[in-house]
């Protein structure tokens, strides 16, 4: 069925709901798998500094395959690309269940996630347009964060009971995502007939990077989302070490509950952004980004569970309000210039490079013995300064 038959539909269309459901199951699996695999590493006595390395091999797959996944998303029906990517995630999770090295299995999941991301965001612009695209992004982020909320908690709680049961749940979630993908309308490929020669694909990706980086609006979005997700993944690992030191709790479940508080907040923030911010008023989200860093710094100094939960909820609200408009801006501008799939692949390269850099610095800080409270305080201050610098840079431009 042609693309035009589905574009401009309501954000509550059958196709959009299938995308949202597939995203929920896929993101649920991703988040449950992280905490289940961290519990597996702990049970097998891997060193503490190796925990962020697990996420580094995941984001390394995004960076390595960035030149190719955007073209794949634009060359085939995006719903089918999502289905095959989730099938690869299912294979990776199942391999960990059956005793394959967790770093190898998690890398396979990372490759699936790299292929999945440009398709899942790119398809939104094919199912709806304009300001409804901001609302569709809000739904996508809300689905993602609900999955983070439930997946993280399920992974942590089940891992405290039985690690293999937690890993099995992840495989089931990916199977659910594959089933949901089958309900997505088979849209026409956005840019069929492109060359599959390796050097040409790399050159094409480089041109897409250069095109988006030259445009002030998309450059602003790329830097902002990169900083946000790099900070988000680092905070997740920081919580695993911070909880035993600051709160004196050493189970697998508590860090996942605290991550869930951030997830709840992002749902609220994403909903607020879809109501209060349009593509013409994206700059409204910048103060929220600065306040994320301030809140992280204050959070790091807490020693009681209730204020820690409240601050993490606030961090999530501010983060959701900050990142959703930037995603919508990149999709709208990118679709016009280099194609939505290529735009998201470039965004993934930026976000995952930021994650790799921040996780590397975090892992090094842990390796040299820096206290988790000091790491969190420095991290929050640096993030606030970085977003403030980005906002000043954008206003001057």
UniProtKB/TrEMBL annotation:
It is found in: Cell membrane. This is Lysophospholipid transporter LplT. InterPro entries: MFS, MFS_trans_sf. It is a multi-pass membrane protein. The chain crosses the membrane at residues 20-41, 53-73, 93-117, 138-157, 163-182, 220-245, 257-274, 281-299, 305-329, 349-368, 374-393. Keywords: Cell membrane, Membrane, Transmembrane, Transmembrane helix, Transport. GO terms for cellular component: plasma membrane. The gene is lplT. Its main location: membrane. The keyword Cell membrane applies. It comes from Intestinirhabdus alba. GO terms for molecular function: transmembrane transporter activity. It holds the Pfam family MFS_1.
């Amino acid at each position: 069925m042609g693309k035009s038959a589905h574009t401009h539909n309501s954000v509550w269309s059958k196709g959009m709901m299938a995308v949202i459901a597939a995203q929920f199951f896929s993101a649920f699996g991703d988040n449950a798998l992280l905490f289940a695999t961290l519990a597996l590493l702990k049970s097998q006595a891997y060193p503490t500094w190796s925990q962020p390395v697990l996420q580094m091999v995941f984001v390394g797959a995004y960076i390595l395959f960035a030149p190719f996944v955007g073209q794949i998303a634009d060359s085939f029906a995006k719903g089918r690309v999502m289905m095959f990517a989730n099938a690869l995630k299912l294979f990776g999770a199942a391999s960990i269940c059956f005793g394959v090295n967790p770093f190898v299995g998690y890398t396979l999941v990372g490759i699936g996630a790299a292929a999945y991301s440009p398709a899942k965001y790119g398809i939104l612009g094919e199912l709806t347009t304009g300001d409804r695209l901001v609302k569709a992004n809000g739904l996508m982020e809300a689905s993602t964060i609900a999955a983070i909320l439930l997946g993280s908690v399920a992974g942590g709680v089940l891992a405290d009971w039985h690690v293999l049961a937690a890993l099995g749940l992840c495989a089931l979630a990916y199977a659910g995502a594959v089933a949901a993908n089958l309900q997505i309308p088979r849209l026409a490929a956005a840019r069929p007939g492109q060359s599959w020669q390796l050097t040409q694909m790399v050159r094409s990706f480089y041109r897409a990077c250069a095109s988006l980086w030259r445009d002030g609006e998309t450059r602003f979005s790329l830097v902002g989302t990169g900083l946000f997700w790099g900070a988000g993944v680092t905070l997740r690992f920081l919580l695993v070490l911070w909880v035993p030191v600051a709160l004196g709790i050493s189970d697998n479940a508590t860090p996942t509950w605290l991550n869930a508080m951030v997830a709840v907040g992002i749902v609220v923030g994403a909903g607020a952004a879809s109501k209060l911010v349009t593509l013409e008023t994206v700059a409204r989200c910048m103060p929220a980004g600065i306040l994320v860093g301030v809140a992280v710094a204050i959070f790091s100094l807490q020693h009681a569970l209730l204020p820690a939960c409240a601050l993490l909820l606030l961090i999530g609200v501010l983060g959701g309000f900050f990142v959703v408009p930037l995603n919508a801006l990149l999709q709208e501008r990118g679709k016009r210039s280099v194609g939505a799939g290529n735009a998201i692949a470039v965004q993934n390269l930026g976000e995952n490079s930021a994650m790799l850099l921040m996780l590397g610095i975090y892992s090094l800080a842990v390796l040299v013995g820096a206290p988790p409270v000091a790491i969190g305080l420095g991290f929050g201050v640096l993030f606030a300064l970085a977003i403030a610098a980005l906002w000043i840079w954008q206003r001057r431009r």
